[in-house]
Each structure stands twice: as structure tokens, then as C-alpha cells.
Design brief:
This protein has 417 residues and is mostly helical. The protein has 2 domains: 19-199, Growth Hormone, Chain: A (Up-down Bundle); 218-407, Growth Hormone, Chain: A, CATH 1.20.1250.20. The chain has 17 helices and no strands. The protein has helices spanning 18-54, 58-74, 76-106, 112-130, 132-142, 148-154, 158-174, 176-189, 191-194, 222-226, 229-258, 263-291, 293-313, 317-346, 351-361, 363-380, 384-407. Helix 6 (148-154) runs antiparallel to helix 12 (263-291). The protein is globular, with a radius of gyration of 21 Å.
Length: 417
């Protein structure tokens, strides 16, 4: 039997340009980090200054990021089709410039209404065009035979952890306008890297096509995907896991308070959950490379279920910290694992369309489950029954992905790349 290979970054072509492939992963890492770092990390530190600057309520300010995420999800299918038409380079460049213009305009927005519109349109659409979705496709294309580690690196959220600390100093010393201009400047700074984006190694491109632009007719049509049970299994199962991960961010502090944990310790649990995403993406990438994406998603589901159950059964801070670590790492790993599984089932050329539809179809779960958990908690008088139901759902999801790992195969008509 052949020995398992070490987890190393090797391009999809056997003798391909390893240095160039690694540069593509670096480009994906930079794009994902600037997009997510500015949208989430930047917004987190700007929320209170925005509230003060425009006399807006907390709910109104929070709506800005919600609109950005909503547009990101709804734009998915269109962005997938655009990547198929013009390639990743020009899609990502257009999104980068659009998002940069949005932050530059935010620096001088005259009202909160304009702030909401800017977060929804130039920032939200730009985020969809060059953020995690196309960045993951870029990394996956260059390591198509085993993209786990490349996807883990590309999705490591380093800037989102660092930007709030820098942003607080900039806002304190120079004001909110300077901070928004700094976010725009971050986008401009990575333009030289984005100009070097190529969709895939030249030798793996289909005949008579260019390496930087996939042929749209090699994509499976959306109607075929929507008729495929495995596609819906991915959407429902991974969408639920993603929603449970978001629920951790929304409700962990309240769960800790209900268990009698002090406010300072609850804040520490949230910090652990957020920080774990940095290495969680790398760990999940390695796990996918070793076991496969479907088994990895099954393990993520089991980890989420066990972590929530332990959280409700202990008040020992060390155990709660370990559970928070697992929740954050598992939540960060869902999208890279979905990327890898989708490429295996439907082909690399169809990946933009699959991920675009996935983003849109899972919006009801990612938007609906966290507030529903709050409503159910209030109605039942505590988190216990709600967490039991969440854990049971994760258990069922694990079974779905185990079955998909055993029976999943590329649907009839799928095109190999």
C-alpha cells in the first residue's frame, strides 16, 4: 500500500510551476483577508464611531453589515456566472476597485442612509467579487488534486484579527474618515498582486482556452445542479453547520451568562472563539487533505454537537474554553470543506456556479437560525432544550455527510477538468 502523502502545497499538474502556484495561494490569501478584514474586522471597530457620527441606533448601524452579507449571498450566482465568462482576474479586479471606492465614499458619507447604501452596494458586491468565494476558487484551481491545505491557507482570517487593534488607534488619533480611507488604501495596495491572477495552470486549461479564463460551456447548468440530491445535501447540511457556527458568535456570551459565568470570563470565551478561526481554517484544510471533505464535514458536525452539549453541562472555564475553541475552528472550516467537496462531486469548472448557488440558497439558514435560537430560548425559558435540538441537528448532519462520503459520486454529465 502506498504511504499517505505529507500535507504540502503541490500544484495540480505533476511538474507544474510550484512557485507560481504558491503565489496564487498568496494572492487568494491577500484578497480574502482584505475583503473579510475590512468588512468584518473594520466594521467591528467602526460601529460605535458610526453610531456617534450619525446619531444612529445600534440596530441601524448593525444593519449595515447585515446588508453587506445579504448582498454577498444574493450576488453569488451572478458572480459565479461572471467568473465563468471573464475569469477570476478581471472579476476580482473589478470587485477590488468597487469595494475600494465604497470605503473611500464611506469616509465622506453625509448620512446614515448613505452609509447603509454604500455597505450594501459597492462594498457588498465588491466583497462578493473578490472575497472568500473567488479566492477559494483560485486556490482550489491551482491545487485541484488535493486543495485542502491551499484552501486552509487562503481562508486563514489573519487581518480580521489584527485590523481592530490598528483601527482603534487610527480612529482615536485621526478619526473615522481616516480609518475608512485606510481601508480603501488596503484594497489599492494589493492591486499589483491581483493583476497576476491566473485561473489555473496553463497545462491544465482545456484545449483552445486561456489559462486565465475558464470556458463557460464546461460548467454544469444550474438546473442540473438543482436536480442533484448531493447538491441539496451539501446546501442543507453545510448551510446548517455554518448557521450553528454563527450562532456561537451570537449566543456564546448569553449561554455563559445563563450558566453563571462572570462577564469577563464570557468575554474571554468569545475572544477564544474568534481567535480559533485563524488556525481552524488551516487545521480543516489539512483534515480534508487527509480524510476527504465529506468525512471532515461529518467530524465538524460531531465537534459542534459535542461542544454545545459540554458547554451546557459544565461551568469549568477550562472545558468551556476548549469548547469555544472547537466551535470557532469548526465554523471557520465549513466553507473550505464545501469548496473541496463541491469540486470533487461536480468538477472544478462548475465550482463557481456551485458556490454561487450555495451562498444564495443557504441564506435562510445563516440569517434565520441565530435569531430563531434567541426566540426559542425566550419561549422555553432557557438554552437547554434549544442546544439539545441544535446538537441533534448536527448529529443528523454528520450522518448525511458520512452517507455522502460512502455513496457520493460525480453526477451524470459532470465534466472532468
Amino acid at each position: 500500500m502506498a504511504k499517505p502523502q505529507d500535507v504540502t502545497l503541490e500544484p495540480s499538474a505533476p511538474h507544474g510551476p510550484t512557485g507560481k502556484a504558491r503565489m496564487m495561494v498568496l494572492r487568494a490569501f491577500l484578497a480574502q483577508n482584505v475583503a473579510v478584514g475590512c468588512a468584518f474586522g473594520g466594521f467591528g471597530v467602526a460601529a460605535l464611531p458610526l453610531q456617534r457620527a450619525y446619531g444612529a441606533s445600534t440596530g441601524t448601524v448593525a444593519l449595515a453589515l447585515s446588508l453587506c452579507v445579504l448582498v454577498f449571498g444574493l450576488a453569488g450566482p451572478a458572480i459565479g456566472a461572471l467568473i465563468g465568462r471573464i475569469g477570476l482576474r478581471w472579476t476580482m479586479m473589478a470587485g477590488l476597485l468597487l469595494s475600494a471606492s465604497g470605503y473611500a465614499l464611506l469616509a465622506f458619507a453625509p448620512s446614515m442612509t448613505v452609509v447603509l447604501l454604500l455597505y450594501a452596494l459597492p462594498v457588498g458586491i465588491g466583497f462578493a467579487m473578490f472575497g472568500p468565494f473567488p479566492s477559494s476558487i483560485l486556490a482550489s484551481n491551482w491545487y485541484a488534486h488535493n486543495p485542502g491545505m491551499a484552501l486552509g491557507i487562503a481562508n486563514t482570517p489573519l487581518i480580521v484579527a489584527l485590523l481592530p487593534m490598528v483601527g482603534m488607534v487610527v480612529i482615536r488619533d485621526h478619526g473615522l474618515t481616516s480609518f475608512m480611507l485606510m481601508l480603501a488604501a488596503l484594497h489599492i495596495a494589493i492591486i499589483p498582486f491581483m493583476l497576476g491572477v491566473a485561473d489555473r495552470p496553463a497545462r491544465s486549461a482545456p484545449a483552445s482556452s486561456q489559462a486565465h479564463a475558464p470556458k463557460p460551456d464546461l460548467m454544469l447548468p444550474a438546473r442540473q445542479l438543482l436536480r442533484t440530491p448531493s447538491f441539496w445535501a451539501i446546501c442543507v447540511g453545510a448551510g446548517f453547520l455554518g448557521a450553528i457556527g454563527i450562532t456561537g458568535v451570537s449566543h456564546l456570551a448569553a449561554v455563559a451568562a445563563e450558566r453563571g459565568i462572570a462577564a469577563a470570563e464570557a468575554a474571554a470565551l468569545l475572544s477564544i472563539l474568534g481567535g480559533s478561526a485563524v488556525f481552524g481554517a488551516l487545521a480543516i484544510g489539512a483534515l480534508c487533505s487527509r480524510l476527504g471533505a465529506a468525512p471532515a464535514l461529518a467530524l465538524l458536525a460531531i465537534a459542534l454537537a459535542a461542544s454545545w452539549l459540554v458547554l451546557m453541562g459544565t461551568t469549568t472555564f477550562a472545558l468551556m474554553a476548549m469548547c469555544s475553541l472547537a466551535l470557532g475552528a469548526a465554523g471557520a472550516g465549513v466553507f473550505p470543506a464545501v469548496n473541496m467537496l463541491s469540486a470533487r462531486l461536480f468538477g472544478q469548472e462548475t465550482l463557481p456556479r456551485v458556490l454561487g448557488l450555495f451562498q444564495m440558497l443557504t441564506l435562510p439558514l445563516t440569517f434565520g437560525v441565530p435569531p430563531l435560537v434567541g426566540v426559542l430560548r425566550d419561549g422555553m425559558g432557557g438554552y437547554g432544550p434549544v442546544i439539545a435540538a441544535m446538537s441533534a441537528g448536527c448529529g443528523l448532519t454528520a450522518i448525511v455527510f458520512v452517507l455522502l462520503a460512502r455513496t457520493g459520486s460525480r453526477p451524470s454529465g459532470a465534466l472532468a477538468t
